[in-house]
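The protein record quoted for completeness.
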Amino acid sequence: MQAVTSAHQPWHAANLVALDLEGSGAQEHHDEQILEIAAIRLVAGRPDMTTAYTTCLDPGRPIPAKPWISPGLAGLALQGQPAFTDIRDALLTRLHGTYLVGHNVGVDWRLLHRHLPELAPAGLIDTYRLARATDLNGKLGLTDLLARLQLTAAVTSAAPASRPHRALWDTTGAALLLPTLIRRHFTSEPTLQQLLDVAGIPSTPPTAAPTATPSTPANQGTLFD
């Protein structure tokens, strides 16, 4: 009998890792720094908080307080935190060959790929894309969806030391949002391939962020979705 490929296994059997990055701003183009990152493995479709990984990163310079900078990351707040080079190996170990899950995960992947080009995920799964394909009304930002689907308290309980728009909280939110959206969108348990057909996005990132205007930095709205 022909072996079943991973794409035809149930979605929750795949090697899934929820991911969120907080950056210094896409308007900085190739100078954009990663300020905070979190990664949570999904086991049987649920976030495994016992092995959750999160860290702030020292960008090597002060971060101006701007509307798109997540709370607690501006100024010299990150001075003395690990440098990105200190966590490269840990990220490769956790993320290489996995399916990365996130809300607007393409934004996170573009920035991560720029700093860690040797990382090769198996694919990207976007909960925002899945939400758009699901019968939901209203705003589709992460905090909006979590509130509408009554998941906010569960996220805060799972990540009590974090808060909305910080990496661990948002990663936990995406990890809990994924199975909820799957149950709403599919009439039966989908395979990984069926999920990718709806929520998958290309893992080849754009060569650069869209050009920012002086009044509206590129893609900054997505940092808080």
User: Anything to note?
Assistant: The radius of gyration is 17 Å. The chain is about 35% helix and 15% strand. Residues 10-204 form a domain with the Nucleotidyltransferase; domain 5 fold (CATH 3.30.420.10). Helices lie at 84-95, 105-115, 127-133, 142-148, 152-158, 167-185, 192-199, 220-223.
